[in-house]
Design goal:
The strands form 2 sheets. A 3-stranded antiparallel sheet has the order 1-5-6, with no helix packed on it. The two termini are 25 Å apart. It is 9% helix and 26% strand. It has one helix at residues 53-62, and strands at residues 3-8, 40-43, 50-52, 77-80, 88-93, 104-108. This is RING-type domain-containing protein.
Length: 109
């Protein structure tokens, strides 16, 4: 029978490094505000930088879609929703997979 295992949710880190994104007390490079509790936008520049969604959306329309940090061109902004620090992500472990190689995840606070 399936069993549920709770593991701490991981928050993405700040905007200046590849693979990083929303939250965790990092500041937006455009407005210098803390991104810990706002909707964040990650762009598809070479470094995958992230900023406040509203800031990078406005920046992209005013600066020919060049990243404020690395100046690479970007064509897409992905919205990242902040994860509360006390949230838990649980993974349902089962011999009966829901799909080919799939796992079921849920988020709760």
């Amino acid at each position: 029978s399936p069993r549920s295992v709770a593991v701490p949710a991981r928050q993405a880190k700040g905007p200046a490094s590849p693979g990083r994104g929303a939250g965790d007390g990092e500041d937006c490079a455009v407005c210098a505000e803390d991104m810990g509790s706002v909707l964040v936008g990650r762009i598809n520049c070479n470094s995958s930088h992230a900023f406040c969604f509203e800031c990078i959306h406005r920046w992209g329309t005013q600066h020919e879609n060049s990243c404020p940090l690395c100046k690479d061109a970007f064509t897409r902004i992905d919205k990242l929703v902040p994860v509360p620090p006390d949230a838990w992500v649980g993974r349902l472990l089962s011999g009966d997979r829901p799909g080919p190689g799939g796992e079921v995840y849920y988020v709760g606070g």
